[in-house]
Amino acid sequence: MAERLIVGVSGASGAPLAVELLRQLRDSHPEIETHLVVSRGGALTLRLECGMELDELKVLASVFHESGAIGASIASGSFPTMGMVVVPCSMKTVAGIVSGYSDNLLLRAADVCLKERRKLVLVARESPLSTVHLRNLCEASQLGAVIVPPMLAYYNHPGTVGEMARYIVRRILSQFGLGGDGYQWEGME
Ligand SMILES: Cc1cc2nc3c(=O)[nH]c(=O)nc-3n(C[C@H](O)[C@H](O)[C@H](O)COP(=O)(O)O)c2cc1C
Question: How does pLDDT run across 152-184, given as a tens digit for each residue?
Fold first, then answer.
């Protein structure tokens, strides 16, 4: 049976990271069945930041689910997956996850990952972070989610925004053992 990974896209800044992640999965891990769900905010930021319509993102995934389709396969714990990444993850979606308020499919799929003790990676993005955001992120971490903010790194000497995005996405995918080689710090003596 194919391994399945759920990719949630919410309305934080960083839609290009979702595009890059789906491309890397399609090109480097065609064996992984990707299940994409995009919130309304996610569709808006995709248009604003990438000039892309949802239909153009859908084709990068194996399966696309409407965010209102709460009866979809990924809404049930009996549907096996390796977990879920929310990229980018808004503070509203973090709040929904930590409170169990699953009023769209993205939130329900994340809720399922927590209850089934599956990997849940949140690429949480906001700046500056309020005390409410920090409190919710801390709670998400305590509940078992892995918080992977899209932080820049300079030790790999990125030359372009695209290179930075590729590096960030490989760090995200490494959480699922899918990051590949060539981005890790090898140490310096
Ligand atoms: C261009 C744009 C950028 C945004 N960036 C962020 C952000 O970085 N972080 C965040 O938490 N919300 C951000 N928002 C606000 C969210 O989109 C908004 O709170 C939305 O209701 C989130 O809903 P969702 O989590 O269901 O997608 C942004 C909105 C827009 C239009």
Answer: 999 889 999 999 999 999 999 999 999 876 666
Residue 69 within any structural domain of the chain: yes
The answer to whether residue 183 sits within a structural domain is: no
- Best residue among 36, 50, 90, 123 to mutate for probing ligand 1's pocket (most ligand atoms within 8 Å of CB) is 90
Task: Specify the long-range contacts of residues 29-32, CB closer than 8 Å, at least 24 apart.
Answer: 29/178, 31/2, 31/3, 32/2, 32/3, 32/4, 32/5, 32/62, 32/82, 32/178
Compute the distance from residue 12 Cα to the ligand 1 centre, in Å.
4
What average pLDDT does this structure show over 39-51?
98
CATH number of the domain bearing residue 126:
3.40.50.1950
Number of domains in the chain: 1
Sorting pLDDT into bands at 50, 70 and 90, what band is 19? very high
Say yes or no to pLDDT of 1 above 70.
no
Q: Which residue segment(s) compose the domain that 48 sits in?
A: 3-174
Minimum CA distance residue for ligand 1 atom 3: 13
Dihedral pair phi/psi, residue 59, rounded to 5°: -70, -15
